[in-house]
């Protein structure tokens, strides 16, 4: 008779005599291994539940060149956004131009190296929209044909 390599279960050759105690030993080993796996899964689920209540969403959009209160930018998500950061794509290492929106604020601070500006922000159940108060597409992060990256924290609390 041989034993399996992982759990040491009995493996019989065709001419071996089979004993009930060997079957029972195999079932005990299988039962112990399954219980151990189930305990491990439960421990991981418990650990995951305490890891926070947000999920991260990211993506891109291309600017249309429109600006102002009649032409707000809008991002829609599959849940309630609580923080959104927009970053313009630049072809240099200087990636310091960004817009930060934090719920429930009704304004967002945009910043570049030596400039700051404010956008008006409106929050919806599953979206955020904003527009440049000075009606200027670059400070609204909506320059024609320019690529923008966004990162959002979505409320995942149950």
The count of domains is 2
Report the uncertain regions: none
Instruction: State the major sheet.
Output: 8 strands, antiparallel
Number of helices: 1
Shape designation: rod-shaped
Provide structural commentary.
The chain has 158 residues and is α+β, with helices and mostly antiparallel strands. The protein folds into two domains: 2-49; 54-155, Immunoglobulin-like, CATH 2.60.40. The protein is rod-shaped, with a radius of gyration of 29 Å. The model has no long low-confidence stretch (mean pLDDT 86). The chain starts with a strand and ends with a strand. The protein is 19% helix and 37% strand. Strand 7 and strand 8 (116-123) form a beta hairpin.
Kindly list the characteristics that best describe this protein.
158 residues, alpha+beta, Immunoglobulin-like, eight-stranded antiparallel beta sheet
Secondary structure: elements and pairs:
Blueprint: E1 2-3, E2 10-11, H1 20-49, E3 54-62, E4 73-76, E5 80-88, E6 98-102, E7 107-111, E8 116-123, E9 127-132, E10 147-155
